[in-house]
Predict the structure.
Amino acid sequence: MKIGVLALQGDFDAHRRRLEELGATVTLVRKAEDFDHIDGLVIPGGESTTFLKLLPKNVLDRLRDFVHSKPTFGTCAGAILLAKHVTNPDQPGLNALDITVERNAYGRQNDSTILHADSALGGEPLEMVFIRAPRISRVGDGIEVLARRGDDPVLVRQGSVMAATFHPELSDDPRVHAEFLKLVKNGTA
Ligand code: GLN
């Protein structure tokens, strides 16, 4: 399986390592042509405004086509990019997931937090590393919630698109990436 990791900014290398550990072949995606030969894409965390600034128009166009047609997994800033609506402040989203996200929503005291919660992935509670995380403040009907932080959805899926508001690439647990690779293999959940 060939997985692209958008590598303009942010912690793309941790995703690359995790995906390779799970047996995927990884391409770091920086140019429009890099989308040609990948079966799935990971959009890492970082700063979503910076992503939008750094993405040349032709790459943004390919990215938009890709997320609407092929399996994609966004973490943190990546989840923000995939959303339909983005608030605090308003910013354009790629509309691949019918969710609204509020950026930097957990406040300064809670800038970075590690929590554990049960998830639809089964087994042990999932370790969730939050860094200046967004909050999913609305989910549309088609959204499946796979894990929550209190009442807030933090791991969601719709068709072949997944998003986490935390950073699974920073935990030792490979289950979230494994779930995404299953999606890439099967086309949908
Ligand atoms: N606060 C960042 C944003 O709004 C996301 C943080 C992250 O990706 N760790 O884009």
